[in-house]
Amino acid sequence: MKTYSATPKDFDHRWYVVDADGMVLGRLASEVAKILRGKHKPMFTPHMDTGDFVIVINAAKVRVTGNKATQKTYFKHTGYMGHERHIPFASMLEKHPERVIEKAVFGMLPKNALSRGTVRRKLRVYATTEHPHAAQQPTPLTFSMHEAK
């Protein structure tokens, strides 16, 4: 038996739109990361770009569970000694809701050249329902996620 290895001509990259209104951040990010990598396809090949494009709308309406809304912070370093910046989740969600989802999804992707190059370019996040990708005719995507208790 021969092991099947997919080639770039075998893949059909589709566009999906996901509404993040009321969804839990971590559960949404893990599903989006799976679609970006292409793990939902039977032809998944780890060393190739098999994933699809994902448009996330209503990023400002994403929610978190537990005390994360008050305790979660995002770390940033300016490059100077002692210049660490810790940005609270509520502040980040208010000013840049797109970055909240981007950081959650990118944290769930592998840290390699394929992820940094092609997979990250396939995610588009918008704070509201409007997006400029109507010409790609994205398919609406819903996830059957269980509610967090």
How would you name the CATH homologous superfamily? Ribosomal protein L13
Q: Structural class given helices, strands, pairing? A: alpha/beta
Relative helix content: 25-40%
Please report the total strand number as a whole number.
6
**CATH fold-level name:** Ribosomal Protein L13p, Chain: A
Mean pLDDT: 92
C-alpha Rg, in Å? 17 Å
What does this structure look like?
It is a single chain. The chain is an alpha/beta fold. It has one domain (15-141): Ribosomal Protein L13p, Chain: A (Alpha-Beta Complex), CATH 3.90.1180.10. Helices cover 28% and strands 17% of the residues. It contains five helices and six strands. Strands 5-2-1-6 form a four-stranded parallel beta sheet, with helices on one face. A hairpin with a 6-residue loop joins strand 3 and strand 4 (84-88). Helix 1 (25-37) crosses helix 4 (97-107) and helix 3 packs across helix 4. It is globular. The model has no long low-confidence stretch (mean pLDDT 92).
Features:
149 residues; alpha/beta; Ribosomal Protein L13p, Chain: A; four-stranded parallel beta sheet; two-stranded antiparallel ribbon; 5 helices
In summary, what is this structure?
The protein has helices spanning 25-37, 68-71, 89-95, 97-107, 113-119, and strands at residues 15-19, 53-57, 73-77, 84-88, 123-125, 139-141. The protein is α/β, with parallel strands linked by helices.
Set out the fold topology.
Elements: E1 15-19, H1 25-37, E2 53-57, H2 68-71, E3 73-77, E4 84-88, H3 89-95, H4 97-107, H5 113-119, E5 123-125, E6 139-141
Helix pairs in contact: 1-4, 3-4
